[in-house]
Amino acid sequence: MILQVLQVNTFYGSSHILQDVSFSVNSGEVVSLLGRNGVGKTTTLRSIMGLTPPRSGSILFKNKEIIGKPPYEAAWAGLAYMPDDLRIFPDLTCEENLDIAAKLSRHTGYWNRERVEELFPVLRARRKQKGLNLSGGEKKMLSLGRALMANPELILLDEPSEGLAPLVVGSLIQVIQEIKEKNVTILLADQNLKFCRRVCNRGYIVEKGRIVLEETMEGIWSNEEVIKRYLVL
Ligand SMILES: Nc1ncnc2c1ncn2[C@@H]1O[C@H](COP(=O)(O)OP(=O)(O)O)[C@@H](O)[C@H]1O
Ligand SMILES: [Mg+2]
Question: pLDDT digit string (tens) for 200-210?
Answer without folding.
Answer: 999 999 999 99
